Amino acid sequence: MDKFFIIGSKSLNGNVSISGSKNAALPILFMSILTEEKIKIRNIPNLTDVNIALELLEYLGAKIKHQKILYIDPSSINNFSPPYDLIKKIRASIWILAPLLTRFGKAKIFFPGGCQIGKRPIDLHIKGLIKLGATINLEKNCINASIKGRFQGKYILMKKNSVGATITIMSAAALAQGITVIDNAAQEPEIIDIANFLNTLGANIIGAGSNKIFITGVLKLKGGTHQIIPDRIETGTFLVAAAVSQGKIICHNTEPKHLKSVLVKLTEAGANINIGKNWIKLDMRGKRPKSLNIHTAPYPGFPTDMQSQFALLNTISKGVGNITETIFENRFNYVSELINMGAKIKIKKNTIVCYGIPILSSANVFCTDLRASATLVLAGCISKGVTIVNKTQHLIRGYELFHKKLNKLGADITMI
Ligand code: EPZ
């Protein structure tokens, strides 16, 4: 059951409800290790990556109750060395390290996994924790870390913009002694959500969402309730689904202000966009999109997680569009699959040049990573004939009920 059988030439129209953000939910789950009091989290998306994170928390000893609302009781956490087979499955497991060090003064975790879109180093995480006072030995495939007493607040200038390392350092600084400043911090909305969650528990973090975050360490965190922000990349993916199929869509339960750079590009492509407090409407009015030139960049720039979806838009647009990937060094694996479907794309170092054609042809294609998987499914929905998308296990890591939501919009996708 890891293939999709997709009948193409569909126009996607209607309403879709956006789920909670995967990239906010994952770190927030691991931040629960920082407290011994009960936590309630709303709008947690039902994803395999989230389920792996919950398995990891349970392995460490936390009590979990996951109905519509997620209840975590972290008081019974008593383990600081999670198993290789779980850690290896997700990139997010790196965010266990700092909370375990804060709680136990030691931690042993294997190097994290994640999408094969680049080397995915963790040097900025490690350097940040050492600066705050941790002792870290990198062994063959695991990290052996310890700290005497509390982390010590410091000024940290990030040599590179990193979402993950900003989160790691913020979580270590929350209970450190003294003040930590993260300069050249990542500014993604997920970082704001994590800071809001930690502040709900009693942390003292200001400036999240800007490039300078100030964290005044506190002695202890309490429990609390939090609602995860909507997933901006799921939202962008559904907006592109309507744009490439010349349809009309309304995305509900989302946050338009998190997608400014994406909405600017969709408008440039010829889409008619309307937004409300928590919804975005896109209407292509039956037109083929215009080609776009895009450079991915750290937030608030154009998100790398939307790169492959916009490459699909360019392949069926009028004109020639260039997309340059500046964040990850290996995020064009889907290009060969789109070329199998008739796309005219040339790769020149970290830029792809897309020569727009009116329609793609169906093919037997293979997923390589999360966002590329969504792109290939959308390509199958709009191409002539029947497309088989293989290795869809990548997809369910990051999109809740993706093919069911697409079928409600007029797609014809069967899991086989
Ligand atoms: C997070 O990955 C997201 N993943 C990614 O989403 C997202 O694409 C990325 O941020 C950038 O926005 C999660 O939140 C689980 P980075 P992360 O640290 O933290 C380099 C998706 O599809 N770097 O901002 O791994 C790194 O190699 C995923 O949902 C170092 O050099 O990204 C990259 O070139 C894909 N050393 C750049 O920085 C480090 O220690 C940005 O990486 C860490 C990162």
Give short descriptive properties of this protein.
416 residues; alpha+beta; 4-stranded mixed beta sheet; 23 strands; elongated; binds ligand EPZ; cell wall biogenesis/degradation; peptidoglycan synthesis; EC 2.5.1.7
Describe what this molecule looks like in 3D:
It is found in: Cytoplasm. The modification 2-(S-cysteinyl)pyruvic acid O-phosphothioketal is found at residue 115. It comes from Buchnera aphidicola (Brevicoryne brassicae). GO terms for molecular function: UDP-N-acetylglucosamine 1-carboxyvinyltransferase activity. The N and C termini lie close together (5 Å). The chain has 13 helices and 23 strands. The model has no long low-confidence stretch (mean pLDDT 96). Helix 1 packs parallel to helix 2, helix 1 (22-31) runs parallel beside helix 7 and helix 4 (97-104) packs parallel to helix 6. Strand 15 (272-275) and strand 16 form a beta hairpin. It has helices at 22-31, 48-60, 84-87, 97-104, 123-131, 163-173, 189-200, 232-244, 260-268, 307-315, 335-340, 370-382, 402-408; strands at residues 4-7, 14-17, 39-42, 63-66, 70-73, 106-110, 135-138, 142-146, 155-157, 179-183, 205-206, 212-216, 224-227, 248-252, 272-275, 279-283, 294-295, 320-324, 344-348, 351-355, 364-366, 386-390, 412-415. The relative contact order is 0.15. The chain is α+β, with helices and mostly antiparallel strands and 416 residues long. The protein is elongated, with a radius of gyration of 21 Å. Ligand EPZ binds at residues 22-23, 26, 91-92, 115, 118-125, 160, 162-165, 186, 304-305, 327-328, 370-371, 398.
